[in-house]
């Protein structure tokens, strides 16, 4: 499966989908978790039989440095406790790639380790950046892993107008973990994982 000819239209569609999520009115979201570093909401996904999650929090750092820690690259594995391996499988342009990564088991291993293959794209958005991704059916599934699937997801990172050294980070995540899992366990894990993502990211940026 050669993705090269379709990387540009896929990136464009992905960006447009994320901007559409970013314009969903507040009344459509239901609070899922409020933590010190982030607030998480959810609404039924239009992509699969699960939820689209929205997470938001202020991060004390400049936009470029925050996004460098989130997108595929050398930083992510260092601080993201959920991610256990990451390989860049193909690079199209500097801001576009296909990566394969694995995640650790969660909830006392009720949720077993997962593998994902995602197309990732980073682009400008307003005064900041958007880094987004979507899973692909690509390559062989590794033994001992269930292949999960990320429907369109991404992170908007824009500087605060009055405090440009601080950024507002807003994420949209809709992950289909697949395998035999109780939906309630998935929902509990997602809200906590997103809140922890912010606290782990903040610690990493301070080091």
TrEMBL record:
GO terms for molecular function: cholesterol binding; cholesterol transfer activity. GO terms for cellular component: cytosol; endoplasmic reticulum. It comes from the Eukaryota. Residues 29-207 form the START domain. GO terms for biological process: cholesterol import; cholesterol transport involved in cholesterol storage; intracellular cholesterol transport. InterPro entries: StarD4, START-like_dom_sf, START_lipid-bd_dom. Pfam families: START. PANTHER family: STAR-RELATED LIPID TRANSFER PROTEIN 4 (PTHR47006:SF1). This is STAR4 protein. It comes from Corythaixoides concolor. The lineage of its organism: Eukaryota, Metazoa, Chordata, Craniata, Vertebrata. The gene is Stard4.
């Amino acid at each position: 499966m050669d993705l090269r000819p379709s990387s540009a239209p896929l990136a464009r569609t992905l960006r447009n989908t994320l901007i559409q999520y970013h314009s969903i009115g507040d009344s459509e979201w239901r609070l899922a978790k409020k933590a010190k570093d982030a607030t998480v909401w959810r609404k039924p996904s239009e992509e699969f039989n699960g939820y689209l999650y929205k997470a938001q929090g202020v991060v004390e750092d400049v936009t470029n440095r925050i996004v460098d820690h989130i997108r595929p690259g050398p930083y992510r594995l260092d601080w993201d406790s959920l991610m256990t391996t990451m390989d860049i499988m193909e690079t199209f342009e500097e801001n576009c790639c296909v990566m394969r990564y694995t995640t650790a088991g969660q909830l006392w291993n009720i949720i077993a380790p997962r593998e994902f293959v995602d197309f990732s794209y980073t682009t400008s958005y307003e005064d900041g950046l958007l880094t987004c991704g979507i899973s692909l059916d690509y390559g062989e599934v590794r033994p001992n892993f269930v292949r999960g699937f990320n429907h369109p997801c991404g992170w908007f990172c824009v500087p605060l107008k009055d405090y440009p050294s601080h950024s507002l980070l807003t994420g949209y995540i809709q992950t289909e973990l697949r395998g035999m899992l109780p939906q309630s366990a998935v929902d509990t894990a997602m809200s906590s994982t997103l809140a922890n993502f912010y606290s782990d990211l903040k610690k990493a940026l301070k080091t």
